[in-house]
Amino acid sequence: MALHAVIMAGGSGTRFWPLSRSAQPKQLLTLVGNRTMIQSTVDRLGDLVTPERLLIVTGERLVPAIAEQLPELPARAILGEPCRRDTAPCIGLAAFQVIRDDPDAIMAVMPSDHVIQTAEDFQQAIRFAAKLVEEAPQRIVTFGIRPTYPAESFGYIERGERLKTGAAGANNCPAAYQVRRFREKPKVETAREYVAAGSFYWNAGIFVWRAAAILDALKKYEPEMHGRLAKIAAASDTTDFLQVFRKEFEAITGKSIDYAVMEHAEDIVVVEAPFRWDDVGSWQAIARLQPQDADGNTVVGKHLGLRTEKAIVRSSDDHLVVTLGLKNCIVVHTPDATLVANRDDEESVRQLVQLIEELGWGKYL
Amino acid sequence: MALHAVIMAGGSGTRFWPLSRSAQPKQLLTLVGNRTMIQSTVDRLGDLVTPERLLIVTGERLVPAIAEQLPELPARAILGEPCRRDTAPCIGLAAFQVIRDDPDAIMAVMPSDHVIQTAEDFQQAIRFAAKLVEEAPQRIVTFGIRPTYPAESFGYIERGERLKTGAAGANNCPAAYQVRRFREKPKVETAREYVAAGSFYWNAGIFVWRAAAILDALKKYEPEMHGRLAKIAAASDTTDFLQVFRKEFEAITGKSIDYAVMEHAEDIVVVEAPFRWDDVGSWQAIARLQPQDADGNTVVGKHLGLRTEKAIVRSSDDHLVVTLGLKNCIVVHTPDATLVANRDDEESVRQLVQLIEELGWGKYL
Q: Which of B308, B322, B358 to mutate: most A Cβ within 10 Å?
């Protein structure tokens, strides 16, 4: 059973406004290091999958930009959805494509915009998950991150019994557990209970399963969605393909894979992630992931700070940002828009983006 | 005796960085209203002087930009100094030019970058000062602003006896006093004493005198400076003029008119300014001079604020500045540099400009 990788790259990343825009969302940005998020995601796969077994699913508008960032990929490796319908249809679409040439395919599904280190740890973890799937063909494997604070922005996975046989019984392998339950993004009080309990993980949104198994699950729990995806797959070699694709895909009710499948499926295993993980959910993350100067400032681009502490500054090599007498500030400069925010207020960037839209200033989005 | 106006426009205005630059100092900026500071200064004169009796003295590099902003002026109305030598040589140069065609000329000398309202009040005040000068040919008239706080950034004028005869004895004229003493920019404790005493004014840097009188004073107190200025004046119709001008002017030791003359001269009168005055010394001034929104924000250009209070934002109509969760902040966007400062820290902008120079980033200055 050969391993395939599916990278989900449909996110809009409004939290990184004004750097992220509708035409250049987070996965296309260089936020950490010198490669874009999606380039790093592909780099991280190493030789885990052969190039013809890599599939990126994104919005159709982003296909050219992604192709430009990943010139080594063949055109067929990038699939553009005609509209956004959340993760379940995206995964179903990918599963149908993968299974066409390889009915036994095992799929590793992952977001395109997280930081995961090291690549070796990640690859080993995926290989381990693939073994767990080989042992039980209908099994779904997820990855859980040990929570470090009561985050409200992640879903949680409650673990049950530890797996002790087969691959999970080998030496030096990551801990793997049956999943007791998937939990939606909680309020902070509930999140605190989860963290205190010690048996909850953050859901990293990385899955390993047989393509056939996830399609079976979609057929069972989301028959209408499955039916439309099957029609799209059946049309794939016909001249009507684009028409069918658009019509059927648009008719699907958007749903996340968690709601569509995870909350119902039976044999789900969570592997405690043996890699460093960060979802890079906001500018704050940049301060976690980049080195800081002596005053705690995190800077990309040309900056001069006087009495400036714990700032996050993002500019370019040409545009000088000067900060004076500021603490805990975020300054992001782009050619047509600048954000200056208090770090503690940063969650509101999404609200800002909505406001900008309402004001009719869509050209800045 | 005809009235002439001399506008001193040599300032560098570093406190308005990044909007002010060496090639575009404060007097060339539109900081309040829709005219630049120097345009407003010329507008304010109204029909106080005829166009051929207006002279602007500036740095030679700024002559083209000033000519562009004031297309109605003849070329000879703008005099470019080859280098900066403070106000005394600038005033002497202007006096020599004015006296050439009009030995009895009365000169009103004023900065190019202050806000003064109303124009009518200003014109009446200058006319009144001219009368005081007509009564006493060697007299120097200055304008004093009633201090509203113990400013450290202004020189002070201590008043003596009130004038009660002649023009100063007329009805409805401003109060005029003999000057007891000019005081340099004080420390705040001294400034507090001045304000408490009630007999001190801020020195507005506006003077009225006969051109012949100020030249006599320069000859008496700064004979070397006067000698060099006289040589420049003598060369004015010769082919050597530019050479002589540069050589002699560069050889002058720079000095302010306060140090060179005011602290020594005998018959100095201070008129309590009957106009509204603001030196627009820093971004803070913009908040005094422009209307604010309900949250106390002062905005020029495209801005969206969320939980933003008492901010001063300066951008353009194209560049969107978004502020989030900020109090007392200054944000100034220009195409190649952005300043984000705490309002309480704003005095340090000059220090910043120096630092930028030291870092070799002169292209931003």
A: B322
